Amino acid sequence: MASNLQKWFENRSPFRGLSNMEDPFDRLMNELMNMKRNGGLGSFEFSPSCDLAEEENQYIATFDLPGVNKDQVKVEVDNNQITVSAERKEEKKKDTKRTHLSEIHYGSYQRSFTIPGTIDEKKIDAKFENGVLTLIVPKTESSKLKQIPVH
Predict the structure, then answer these.
(1) C-alpha to C-alpha distance for 95 and 98, rounded to whole angstroms
(2) Which of 12 and 69 is assigned the larger pLDDT?
(3) Topology, domain 50-143
(4) pTM of the predicted structure, to 2 decimals
């Protein structure tokens, strides 16, 4: 009797099909990686992470750009819009080794932000160190928060 009850619970479990899905999912991921490696997809992009924070007198933007050289990074400012672009190039080597896994993405990257309020474009500081780009964007007097007294 216990075995019938156990079978009934197993058939009602929301996780009962997960083990059956594992093999097809693994096959799909392997096929996607093979297509990427062989140039079949072409749309995998290099997409670094970014943090954007605001302090009283400035904005701070931090970009993770692993594998990018300093000379491959470009920062442009147009009014309150900041655009960061970079390129991570893959070195083509003639190899006889077989690659079993390739998850490193290469290509061009571009990200734009519109800063709310006015910024001092002439005083923006861009530092690139250990694959991390940090932008310090000072606010102008007119963009700082002002409290208006109520009479």
Answers:
(1) 8
(2) 69
(3) Immunoglobulin-like (2.60.40)
(4) 0.61
